[in-house]
Design goal:
This protein is α+β, with helices and mostly antiparallel strands and about 90 residues long. The chain is about 20% helix and about 30% strand. A hairpin with a 4-residue loop joins strand 3 and strand 4.
Length: about 90
């Protein structure tokens, strides 16, 4: 499972493939930060998203909160299983 969750609520399914650093940086718009959720999923987000004022991502925030990471998520993110990050 590899999904891009955009700030406007749009969810884009990607074919199950290996994600590379450059691809992840392009999606999140900068340096990446990886958050591990208690269900084993990873959330790849912009490391400086809050500092640079990226828009709140309410869908990603909800997914994170339900899975044990209680923080606000901003910007477009990737949610995936760890096996897809190279």
């Amino acid at each position: 499972m590899v999904k891009i969750v955009k700030t406007n609520g749009q969810i884009i399914d990607l074919e199950d493939k290996q994600l590379h650093l450059e691809q992840m940086q392009k999606v999140v718009g900068g340096y990446i930060e990886i958050v591990r959720l208690k269900n084993g999923w990873l959330v790849v987000c912009n490391e400086e998203g809050k500092l640079i004022g990226l828009e709140e991502n309410s869908v990603a925030t909800l997914v994170c909160n339900v899975n044990g990471f209680n923080d606000l998520i901003v910007g477009d993110v990737i949610i995936c299983e760890s096996k897809y990050i190279k």
